[in-house]
Specification:
Blueprint lengths: L14 H4 L4 H10 L2 H18 L1 H4 L36 H37 L1 H15 L3 H12 L3 H27 L3 H8 L4 H37 L12 H7 L9 H28 L6
């Protein structure tokens, strides 16, 4: 007895296995088979674990200045048995500062990016989904925000709210809102001209269902990629605000961006003061970027393999 042949799709799945599969469930399945997504997620997981378990991983107390004699203007101790990555300019263990810097930098960077993403996406959905006068009003507000340099806007908000971590998150997140709003709106307007939107309207689906169930999910790819790129920018902006006196009052508090700034005047004698936190920022940004690119591929029908 001959078994009926099973049709296999381009992705190696039968139509029966794909029946009823939602966009996000299918995207998650494709992400698990994407090496780029696995590498990016692994990098993110490592830094999240380092940030969460910093007290257990760090060999010394953070912002400790008990080795100030090993850090002078003309000399900074490098790698040794007690301090594998050397001493920073404040007389603190560099490895400890990097570990605790993961917590400070990632928390502020990720939360501020999420604030900008959520608020900007909400404006983008209103403008791109409703159109008409709502689109005009929302985009004029976004244009006003764009007319102010992002760092100047962040400085104004941080100065008004005070020198706290929460103020930095709000300030940096607010500066990112117009970027996400314009990007998502443009992506949704492009998707709204697609054939599947016309077909959904012809079938009698409500506009809200079309926008939230079809147009928005297919428009998120570029926005998610931008969010990953904005993370590194957010970490640098934290350092910039701290450099201007709008961050934590204690200069020795571990934060990757501030560590780069504080190591500038010792770069000739101790380049690792800026090198190590710079590498940490680059690897973290790489992890978010790899995962974001993979998500763009699996969420955008034109990019699917």
């Amino acid at each position: 007895m001959t078994m009926p042949a099973t049709t296999i799709t381009a992705e190696g799945q039968s139509p029966e296995s794909m029946a009823g599969e939602t966009l996000w469930r299918g995207a998650f399945k494709r992400l698990r088979r994407n090496p780029m997504a696995i590498i990016g997620a692994s990098i993110m997981a490592v830094f999240v674990l380092v940030a969460v378990f910093a007290p257990l991983l760090a060999p010394y107390e953070p912002a400790s200045t008990q080795w100030t004699e090993l850090s002078t203007y003309n000399y900074v101790q490098g790698s040794s048995a007690e301090h594998p990555l050397g001493i920073d300019r404040w007389g603190s263990d560099m490895l400890t500062q990097l570990i605790y810097g993961a917590r400070q930098s990632l928390v502020i960077g990720v939360v501020s990016t999420l604030i900008g993403l959520v608020a900007g996406a909400a404006l983008g959905v209103l403008a791109g989904g409703l159109g008409g006068r709502v689109d005009t009003v929302v985009m004029r507000f976004v244009d006003i925000l764009l007319s102010i340099p992002s760092l100047l806007l962040a400085i104004s908000i941080a100065a008004a709210m005070g020198t706290t971590g929460f103020a930095l998150m709000i300030a940096i997140g607010a500066a990112q809102i117009p970027i996400f709003a314009r990007l998502l709106r443009a992506s949704m307007l492009s998707q709204s001209r697609s054939d599947y939107v016309l077909a959904a309207g012809a079938l009698g689906l409500k506009r809200k269902t079309i926008v939230m169930g079809h147009v928005l999910p297919n428009s998120l790819g570029p926005t998610l990629v931008q969010a990953t790129l904005n993370l590194a920018t957010a970490i640098i902006e934290v350092a910039a605000l701290s450099y201007l006196g709008l961050g934590n009052d204690e200069a020795a508090v571990a934060e990757w961006g501030r560590m780069i700034v504080s190591g500038q005047d010792r770069f000739e004698i101790a380049p690792w003061l800026a090198f190590y936190p710079g590498i940490a920022i680059a690897i973290t940004a790489l992890g978010f970027t790899l995962l974001g690119e993979a998500m763009r591929e699996v969420l955008d029908p034109k990019q699917r393999r």
